[in-house]
Amino acid sequence: MKMLSFLFLLLLPYWAMAQEQINKPPKKEYLDEEGRLFAPAIGYNTFFPIQYEQTGPFHGPSFGFELYNQTMEGDFSPAQFAFFCQFSQLQSLEQSNSRMLLISFGGRFSFETQLSRRFFLPFFGLEFGGVARNDVNWAPQLSPFVGLEIYHGRNWAWELKGSYTNALSADMRQLSGGLLHTHVYINLWTTD
Amino acid sequence: MRLYLLLLFLWSSWALQAQKQDSLAICKVLPDHSWEAYAIPEIGYDFYTPLNDSLGNAYHGPSFRFSFYQYSYDDETWGPAYLNLYVRLQRLYETQKGISQQFLWGLGAEFSFETGLYRSFFVPYFGADLGNMGRSDLGNSFQFSPVLGLNILHNKRVSWRINSRYTFATGEHNSSLSGWTLGSSIQFNFW
Fold it and tell me: Inter-chain contact B191–A77, Cβ cutoff 8 Å?
């Protein structure tokens, strides 16, 4: 009897440990989706040039592609990243004959390593390309940005971002400024 | 005898568990100074003094840097222990009159002087970048900027650095565009 009690006491911690494992909450589910290719995106831009008083803001539609985007569960990598290209044509609100063209290629990366929600996913990134105005020579541009994926679905997503467009030429004051951009992209093809 | 064997078996499993805990504790005692990182943003502020500006004005403004790849190793036997590959962007404004503006961008690399880094502060480095610069009243020019700097805080998550560059500009306005930059920046790695 004594031996049995002794064995029971010895086995008790094992039983307690097993019980603890059973009572543990289930592991959190994180977004882990295959890569998406050439997702078309349509959106809208509002541009506030440095010389705002002369031309007022510019606005207009944009069209582009999310060349590759992926959302995954990572330990040492962003939970979401994408490479994209975008074309926009903008029109001055105050001067009807003043138009702009903006072309950019870039990459964006989420701040987080794991995402368990589909709303409000913040990101940052960098884009480069060209900017032109019908009354000013074109210039290359390099623009850091921050943004928010307002909704990230399996098949579509809605994104909002703000950037500072840095025109890299002597006409930087005419062509540089703040840009607010929103677009919706639709995932058509996956890599698998 | 059977009881003894059973007890021995049970105790050995406890001992193994304890050994595992000890190993974990030892791992925690020795810090790891090695890391690799990708896509790291950095923001800073720069002060620029042109070499021979007729206006005699200095420039200052924000800078942004995006590092494509970076490593810091504590077990390197050959080569730099710290490497950083980046693109940087600088946007400067004339200090006194505020009329003239200047931009600069460059693709570059930085290397530590040392081959093994076992600390998280005061890491000197050197490097250079190539690119383009321009001023609203003078036009564009090719630029080459060697740099000497110090990572005051040198960490995978956060780095704080100060640096000094000399920018060589080409073209007819090279003496107005070339000059010294003194800057400080902070880098955040989120992953």
Answer: yes
